[in-house]
Records
---
Amino acid sequence: MKWQGRRKSGNLEDRRGMSGKGKLAAGGGLIAVVVVLLQLFGGDTGQTLAPILEQVTQSQSVSEGGEQRELTEKEKELGAFMNAVIVDTEDIWSEIFRENNLGAYKEPTVVLFTDAVRSGCGTASAASGPFYCPADQKVYMDLSFFDQLRTRFGAKGGDFAIAYVTAHEIGHHIQTILGTSQKVRQLQQQTNQAGANKLSVAQELQADFYAGVWAHHNRDYLEEGDIDEALSAANAVGDDAIQRRTQGSVQPDSFTHGTSEQRKYWFMKGYKTGDIKQGDTFSEIMN
Ligand SMILES: [Zn+2]
């Protein structure tokens, strides 16, 4: 993605390189595995995860605002890239909201962190992957996740994988400010586990769709290979791909994010149409 020369966003909170006393160390290993399975990029399941995370953090504190080490050149560059992605989402979603008479777009904050972070949804370790917290309307990104995406999940990597995941999390913000997330939570309370999982899949696929819609409107800045990087990331984090890798078999009833095929399909549908009205994943998934 061409990302040089953007204005500076007022919504980027860079907490990288801050020291913390306890880094969710002892006893965190097992819990961290659970969190990865539940939340791998991204639920806006921050709220339901909070009780699990509380267990981890009760006896350990994460201090923010301690000493800050100097960021490396690579980290600084990644920060500048993230700034460009955030600015582009701000400009594009403001425009889409205007065009669709959805009122003023309320920009989310994006927090960059290393190791662990305190959010409005509880304390999270980097193992939870990128997530959106509806309670404070912030996206939390630990950028080391993208090294794992490449080395452990076999994705291509590349800058646009990061852009896609960020846009997916911002998709959850869109769902929150449009009231979709609240409706999903209500419906989930009235159904069984399999029904709740299906609703979660529809919500996640719609976030992928919104990421595609953003990419469509950002296409002047795209470079060759960018869409492939996004699709490769989407492919790597499909529920079927994750289950095959972690448990050797696939149980569709337990899917919460959708298959690799579904994730690629909805991202591409958003990318091709650029039209938020085409993103009714719910009627497709629930029927
Ligand atoms: Zn998500």
---
Amino acid sequence: MTDVPAGPDGDALDVGSEVVVDVGPVAHGGHCVARSDGRVLFVRHAIPGERALVRVTEIGSGGRFLRADAVEVLEASPDRVTAPCPWSGPGMCGGCDLQHVAPPRQRSLKAEVVREQLRRLAGLDVAVEVEAVPGDDDGLRWRTRVEYALDDAGRPGLRRHRSHDVVPVDDCRIAAPGVRDLAVTDATWPGARAVDAVTPSASDPVALAVGERGSVEDDPDVRERLEATWSDDHGTHTLARDMTVAARGFWQVHPGAVAALVGATMAGLAVRPGERALDLYAGVGVFAAALGEAVGPGGQVVAVEADARAVEHARDNLADLPWVLPVAARVDDAFGVARPTKGGRRGRGRPRRPARSPLVPTSADVVVLDPPRTGAGAGVVRAVADLRPRAVAYVACDPAALARDTRTLVEQGYRLASLRAFDVFPMTHHVECVAVFERTDA
Ligand SMILES: C[S@@+](CC[C@H](N)C(=O)[O-])C[C@H]1O[C@@H](n2cnc3c(N)ncnc32)[C@H](O)[C@@H]1O
């Protein structure tokens, strides 16, 4: 075990040590920052402004910081509530970070994180409000896709925080009623690695045993409903269509998320008939559908997605919009941009620069980017800017990645025109942002 350097009073905190701290600001990742004798602690289960007894759970890399849980609150925040889930708390399920915080304060904490990431990594000072998704009052019973972990005996549960241990959560309070009704936790699942429970909005719920290598014995397609309304310079638009997605494929897990994100993206871009649009990291074509409807038959949409099965689904989902072209490729490959190297060691694994795909146009009017948690990266963002789109919408599930890519876009001559953030993962520290950028010389 790595000892952390002792504080001025000579004591050394180690795993299991307890200390009283004043809890400081929220930090990215579901914890707050506190200090003890000059040492930094990332404290879970606390709220800024509280005084709490914390127990050290882990020594951070190189002993530079400590992770800790608040095990006793000595001075409570007025925003502290009793966690609705009995499986939440120190040493318990790691799925939720904020069960002990009143939902409005959960959103203001997430807003502080987004604002801080943009300030620190992009040098921008932006007012941020995290909006509740319409109809979501208490932050419970929203999660339409849950992957249950299994213990050695095949009993389902959810993982302990930063651990492979399985906590026998019998009723996850953020799981949608359709997931609960599948009663995955009433059975044992010998031989499986995990069990996925999915309750799609437009077809029947399914429970899938996931095999050792991630394969699924019977991985059916499900139907999800894309509904969105937005207003822009050209009026109010409503989109409603059912889309096919693999049961284990990507679809937003909050039933209100797609409407919120598509609505904000399309309102921000104000797409005109006849324009050319790119949907990057397109999945089964959610944004491509909205863009395709907006540009109409005189326009063009190119939707780039790496997952071959998702692209097949996008082709079916968008077959009635023949001016939308789904392309099966990694976005970086499609732009001829070198893939990010692992480890970044000089001289090793020189990044391969693929040939640019002829299917990707060399100019565009608008671009939607909806990358995975790691973000698009500087190479892709520069390639997007080279298309000289009048507007770019960046849909982000990680505020740090958004802030890094924002910095690149600003360096390339774009300004952040609007930012909306949505609480599509209540009770957890996660937040989804829609940032719209415009060319400064437009
Ligand atoms: C956050 S999801 C968004 C999907 C879609 N826009 C939606 O809203 O349903 C990110 C998508 O990017 C895809 N993806 C991940 N890395 C990629 C890459 N390098 N190039 C292209 N697609 C990628 C994933 O398969 C996934 O479908």
